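Dear Dr. L.,

I hope this message finds you well. Following up on our conversation about the binding site, I have prepared a predicted three-dimensional model of the protein together with 2-acetamido-2-deoxy-beta-D-glucopyranose. For your records, I am including the exact sequence and ligand specification that went into the calculation, followed by the structure tokens. Please feel free to forward this to your student if that is useful.
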Amino acid sequence: MRPSALPTAMLLVGTLAKSSSITCADGLYMVVARGTGEKDGSGVTGSLAEDIADRIENSIVEPLDYPAAFSDPNYMRSERDGVETMQNLITSYHKACPDGKIAVFGYSQGGQVASDAFCGSGGIIGFSQRAALPISLVEDSVVAIIVFGDPSHVAEAPYNRGTSQKNGVFPRQNITLCEDNYTGIMRSYCDTGDTFCDLGDDGEVHRLYISNYGDDIANFVVDKYDDMMRKTTATASGTASASASASATDDSDNAAAGLAPGLALATIAPFALTILGLLL
Ligand SMILES: *[C@@H]1O[C@H](CO)[C@@H](O)[C@H](O)[C@H]1NC(C)=O
Ligand SMILES: *[C@@H]1O[C@H](CO)[C@@H](O)[C@H](O)[C@H]1NC(C)=O
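The resulting structure of the complex is given below.
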């Protein structure tokens, strides 16, 4: 059983220990955040990342180590752990490997994790609020941000792909940063009927993104990587920009000003959680 509240100190030690053993990829460093309930590793998105690794020599696929849980710990806490871990991982990687190129993939809960890490928590009710990764770090190092079936999907985002015209279960309230700054590198896939990103009722849709869009995505990521490599070799690199401590601030607890997480969970999004619960 996983304790529902992992002490911050433990998390910190884990993160520091990891950052000292970072291996810089000569190719692309791919961070993959799996969906709720997928077992440890990179989940269904792993095959896509491996396909890309076959096309970009010396790439590394790095599964994000986070709970991806629904109830133990609860979804909101699990998701928050994911965002924190992803931001720390990317910040540490960029620090250790300043010329390194990164792509991020997130499926389902992992999609919300990736969206929060780059767009900021966006005021999604019931979730803790966390600042986005610094834009300068992303511009220096991130070639693509790909999410599938993201519960925080919003219908009007310019980086959307797929047929959905609806919001997801936990629609993001503020997409300004990603809309303004990452539309060129970000893609959020959501098809009509997806229970999580489209509030639909077709359980199959959520599972089909890689088979429907995988080839397009692989081409997109490889193109973006090539573009950035051309840019990087054309300009002198090496401006030390992002500092780890400046990357993100955590308000350390729940968004809903002062509500205990359990209470917030019970009161804020009962409808959405009921839907998720029925589906799992
Ligand atoms: C939305 O996010 C942007 C960029 O982070 C910020 O400047 C803006 O104030 C936010 N808008 C609201 C209504 O919170
Ligand atoms: C992000 O996008 C906004 C709107 O286009 C722009 O004003 C801002 O300078 C961008 N931020 C960075 C750091 O490029």
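In brief: The domain at 19-234 is CATH 3.40.50.1820 (Rossmann fold).

With kind regards,
A. P.
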